[in-house]
Amino acid sequence: MIFDSIRSKSSYTIRINTSSRILTLYKSGIPIKKYGVAVGKPSTPTPKGKFYIINKIINPGGPFGARWLGLNIRGYGIHGTNNPSSIGKSISNGCIRMFNRDVIELSKMVPIGTPVDII
User: Fold this and answer.
1) Where are the domains of the chain?
2) Per-residue pLDDT tens for 63-80?
3) Has residue 3 got a pLDDT over 90?
4) DSSP assignment of the chain, as one string?
5) Is the pLDDT of residue 28 over 80?
6) What are phi and psi of 68, to 5 degrees?
7) Fewer CB atoms inside 10 A, N or C side of the chain?
8) Residue 45 confidence (pLDDT)
9) Rg of the chain's alpha carbons, rounded to an integer?
10) Which UniProt keywords apply (predicted)?
11) Residues that are catalytic
């Protein structure tokens, strides 16, 4: 499958801990950066599991801030926010929110196919 070959070329992985609200970026298995994030509220929790980035959108508009990194679970992604005070809280509809400066930085580093482990 083409997607598997794209995925295998990424030396980056992302782990999102919904309890601590921390996204950790790894390169070749070594943590290189940590970001505070917002996660889903109790009524719309962030899904847990192993996913992959399937698309990247610059300036998606609306509440999605400066970047969108879509996951291979319909309707969910890692994105910026037009509400920076939400970072560090359980407040989203299930997506992972980041400060716009952080999601821009992350988006520049990780390719489509990057594994995302949400715990």
Assistant:
1) 2-118
2) 999 999 999 999 999 999
3) no
4) -HHHHHHHT--EEEEEETTTTEEEEEETTEEEEEEE-BEE-TTSPPPPEEEEEEEEEES--GGGTTEEEEESSTT-EEE--S-GGGTTSEEESSSEE--HHHHHHHHHHPPTT-EEEE-
5) yes
6) -130, 125
7) N
8) 98
9) 13
10) Cell shape, Cell wall biogenesis/degradation, Glycosyltransferase, Hydrolase, Peptidoglycan synthesis, Transferase
11) 79, 95
